[in-house]
């Protein structure tokens, strides 16, 4: 595995029954970058994320994270690797019966020797880092707006000071101002915490404002990857329509106005 890569996926095949989702998929996440993963609905972006974090077992291929073969690990070695990444699922995946602080404390409970008071304080810190007010700590997920729930999910993903963060459609369902604030937060956290970020999104504004590189899923694999400037040169019909369609033009024009 190249030292510059924190994730290397090679020859991935995932399949549910007869339905092949990925076939011969290769993907790299470089250290310190924000990689936007895009593709049409159902092309397997979330399945790829879940495969990398070991929730779905591939039929073939290899997935290496931070130099370790995810499929070959079990027990303590597996748990040690899992502590080095954080995942924010699409809906936040918070426990509804726990407050925001208690949700963020869940991963911290795995840290040996961490006193209750320190765990509570650390959870509060992560909630603040995710841009939530302190009083949100005592709220239940049902008492929060969708945007606040996403931030709570992000706080939980950051709980163990991860090196890699996986974000599944972090701005979906947010109003444009909330989505823009979330984009800025992702970049600020990457810079402050030296994170590598695997970001599944449909949001063209996010691609423009956050992502160092983009990987396009199509035809069961990563069809192409590169910078936004490189994506704009790709002639494949879906890629061209995606990056040059009306919504793409709107995102580019608002980006230019913001510069
Ligand atoms: N547990 C599962 N069992 C069977 N099929 C599944 C399972 N999870 C996902 N799939 C199928 O795999 C395909 C890819 O799903 P996935 O959720 O990764 O798509 P996606 O690219 O993230 O889509 P979207 O952009 O709409 O969120 C879909 O056809 C989906 O129905």
Automatic annotation (TrEMBL):
PROSITE patterns: ABC_TRANSPORTER_1 (PS00211), ABC_TRANSPORTER_2 (PS50893). InterPro entries: AAA+_ATPase (IPR003593), ABC_transporter-like_ATP-bd (IPR003439), ABC_transporter-like_CS (IPR017871), P-loop_NTPase (IPR027417). The keyword Nucleotide-binding applies. Coiled coil: none annotated. GO terms for molecular function: ATP binding. The keyword Nucleotide-binding applies. Residues 7-244 form the ABC transporter domain. It holds the Pfam family ABC_tran. Keywords: ATP-binding, Nucleotide-binding, Transport. It comes from the Bacteria. Gene3D superfamilies: P-loop containing nucleotide triphosphate hydrolases. This is ABC transporter ATP-binding protein. It comes from Paracoccus maritimus. The lineage of its organism: Bacteria, Pseudomonadati, Pseudomonadota, Alphaproteobacteria, Rhodobacterales.
